[in-house]
Amino acid sequence: MQDTIDQIVELGREHKVAIREQTTLINMLKSRVREYIGFEALKADKGESIDKKKASAEYKRLLVDQEDALFLLRVKRIMTPYEEAKADQVDLAKRMGKLVESLPIAKWVEAQRGVGFPMIGKIIASAGDDLNMYPTPAKLWKRFGEHVVNGKAPKPTKGEKLGFNPYYRSVSYQLGDGLIKAGGTVEKDNLSPWKQVYEARKCYEIEKATERGLKVVPAAKIKKSEAHLYMSEGHVHNRAARYMRKKFLEALWQEWTGNHRDMELPAFITD
């Protein structure tokens, strides 16, 4: 089993390198888009900065939809290695997933709606070793940047060292996105167990905000001068998603280690 874990960790390192390469190349491509379209065309209606919506639309048109043959010709030397790095990520994730299928945890993973073997491979690779090396779920949370500092989720602070690796947190975010997107909807009454955890936590956060005298509304409706009177729906979502991610990591750790003594998950997840 340790040999399989070591292989997953090594593939995870290569996956991380592919992501870094792809990020560098996409930034180069975006720079070429700005040069090609021209700063004035992308400028916001007010002010001198670039309009993010306009820029995003052009990135999609030129880089995703590839509607301009002349532009593609100009960026061919960048586009080719970009596509290769993108393909490498997919291939490496699949290879990690195949290895996860051979682990004792595989049957449990298969039963979790919204997460596949490649995703669990990324988690194991990001953990860096056998999950038994983590004495408590809290240690695993910290690895993925899901711990708390002074009662709050840690954020980058200028002049201070970040207490976690941002890449590992991004893996946790990918996990959460999958659990939510594949978790069904309240309207269709087909929620997965993990989506139920998310929805229940949203209700809890709204209730707590209401008790504090705050109104929960879309962020676009909150005036800066009245921000202290509201909590945005996005803030509620972030809190609920973070809670769900932590509970999943806790469940994974307990299933892996066989330590269920401190299980605090709702009964429908363990039934």
Keywords:
63% helix, mainly alpha, disordered C terminus, 271 residues, two-stranded parallel ribbon, 2 domains
Describe how the helices and strands are arranged.
Elements lengths: L1 H36 L1 H4 L9 H13 L4 H6 L1 H25 L5 H5 L6 H11 L9 H7 L22 H16 L11 H19 L3 E3 L12 E3 H25 L9 H4 L1
Parallel strand pairs: 1-2
Short summary:
The chain contains twelve helices and two strands, in the order ααααααααααββαα.
Write up what this structure looks like.
The two termini are 27 Å apart. This protein has helices at 2-37, 39-42, 52-64, 69-74, 76-100, 106-110, 117-127, 137-143, 166-181, 193-211, 233-257, 267-270; strands at 215-217, 230-232. Strands 1-2 form a two-stranded parallel sheet. It has 2 domains: 1-102, no CATH class; 109-271, no CATH class. The chain is an all-alpha fold and 271 residues long. Helices cover 63% and strands 2% of the residues. The longest helix has 36 residues, at 2-37. The model is unreliable at 266-271 (pLDDT under 50).
Count of domain modules:
2
Average pLDDT works out at 89
Q: Order of strands across the widest beta sheet?
A: 1-2
User: Main beta sheet: strand number and arrangement?
Assistant: 2 strands, parallel
Output the helix-strand order.
HHHHHHHHHHEEHH
Measure the end-to-end span. 27 Å
The overall strand count is 2
So what's the overall shape? globular
The count of helical stretches stands at: 12
Question: What fraction of the residues are assigned to beta strands by DSSP?
Answer: under 5%
Round the Cα radius of gyration to an integer and report it: 22 Å
Low-confidence stretches: 266-271
